[in-house]
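RhoGAP domain protein
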Amino acid sequence: MIFLLQEGGLEMEGLYRVPGNQAQLSELEKSFREKGDVDIGSLDMPVHVVATAVKTFFSCLAEPLIPTELHDNILDCIADNDVIFLT
């Protein structure tokens, strides 16, 4: 899914803001529930549907992807003027 987003959507305006078609999203979710491992490319899903599925997955996690106790540390790092950029 992430590869599909990188290939087809990173330059697209509103990729994670514009919701995907609900019927197609339901079809994608059903495929994952039934098969577990889905070849996204074979389903020919629009990139907005895939982005919406990724957003939904992360929002449904029992624990946040970035633990709450790390939020202050992350904000401190963002505010740090001595940032080293890795390329």
